[in-house]
Design a protein that fits this description.
- With 323 residues, the chain is mostly beta strands.
- It is 10% helix and 38% strand.
- The protein contains one helix and 23 strands.
- The chain has a five-stranded mixed β-sheet with strand order 1-18-17-16-15, with no helix packed on it. Strands 2-21-20-19 form a four-stranded antiparallel β-sheet, with no helix packed on it.
- Strand 22 and strand 23 form a beta hairpin.
- It starts with a helix and ends in a 14-residue tail after the last strand.
């Protein structure tokens, strides 16, 4: 009789444990279904696209400096999930996930100047080379060169990482070569220097845990990291962090661009694009004014001719150019 009671108690405990397991599993499933799965840029992902958090702050400088905000403009349509941005000397270019358009927008108020079509669903990198845009296709793992007049693809090559490990992100143009962040799925992020045909010139371990937006200021490379909400100023000669800036706008500082004196940062948390002063000297010794004053120089950088647009703000001005 005692043995039978013992068996009944064991059976009851097993049943209780099974019921608890079922309840926990049920509620966990409900929570997962009820929430959107986001990557570290704030973009909705499929379960197969979830990126594991990688613990890498490779030589990142711990001291942070605050950015001085010069101007703030809204992201186009307020919901584009911008991953990267570019500056063409006069206007900003932005691309949104699932939009199938690249927008040229005013740096003064964010209004759309024009839009060119793209077949890319997940455009995660964008930069301007003085004539055309370059775009990193996160879904198909390719980099395209695009005609800004009509969106035609002029050139295309695969990203430098094997497709089953690649999660391509930001792009920058240094006047001769591309720089590219890849948020690798199974290893620490990497930053690549590529020539204009896609060949790898050099590769480096990226900074932060989600190396996304990139831009070039004429001397230094700048890169964003979403989890830490930081922007890194990188000396490419040693590939070390020279400075760390607190990114404005919240959790998802993605895109980066440089307008000749100021950085632009696109943030998906705030659905806004920030023009910030991080203490950079104007490129080319020009007396640049904030973009709101409509003083622009393009293309920048350049190895040949360039244009200076004074807008409507200045009646008379003296410009001194030093090579």
């Amino acid at each position: 009789m005692h043995f039978i009671r013992l068996l009944e108690n064991i059976k009851l405990k097993i049943m209780k444990k099974s019921i608890i397991t079922i309840i926990v599993t049920f509620f966990t499933t409900c929570i997962c279904i009820g929430q959107e799965v986001l990557d570290y840029s704030g973009t909705v992902q499929n379960s197969v696209d979830i990126i594991k958090l990688k613990n890498s702050h490779h030589n990142a400088k711990k001291s942070r400096n605050a950015a001085i905000i010069i101007n703030v403009i809204p992201s186009p349509n307020q919901s584009t999930n911008i991953q990267d941005i570019a500056f063409d000397g006069t206007y900003l270019w932005v691309e949104g996930v699932d939009e199938y358009f690249i927008h040229q927008i005013s740096p003064v108020d964010g209004s759309i100047v024009k839009s060119i079509p793209t077949s890319v669903q997940k455009p995660y990198g964008l930069t301007f080379d003085g004539a055309c845009l370059w775009l990193a296709d996160n879904q198909n793992k390719i980099i395209q060169r695009i005609d800004t007049a009509n969106g035609n693809v002029l050139q295309s090559f695969p990203t430098p990482v094997l497709p089953n490990n690649s999660y391509p992100g930001g792009l920058a143009w240094d006047g001769q070569n591309l720089w590219h962040n890849d948020m690798l799925l199974s290893a620490n992020d990497s930053t690549y220097k590529l020539n204009a045909t896609g060949q790898v010139i050099q590769s480096y371990q990226g900074f932060g845990t989600y190396s996304q937006g990139l831009t070039w200021d004429g001397q230094y490379l700048w890169s964003t990291d979403n989890p830490s909400r930081e922007i890194y100023k990188i000396d490419v000669a040693t590939f070390s962090v020279m400075d760390t800036i607190n990114a404005p706008g919240g959790q998802y500082p993605n895109g980066l661009a440089f307008d000749g004196q100021y950085l632009w940062v696109a943030n998906n948390d705030a659905d806004s694009i920030y023009q910030i002063d991080v203490g950079l000297m104007p490129t080319g010794n020009f007396n640049l004014k904030p973009t709101q004053n409509k003083f622009t120089i393009y293309p920048n950088p350049t190895s040949g001719n360039f244009s200076v647009d004074l807008g409507e703000t200045y009646n008379a001005v003296t410009i001194s150019i030093t090579d």
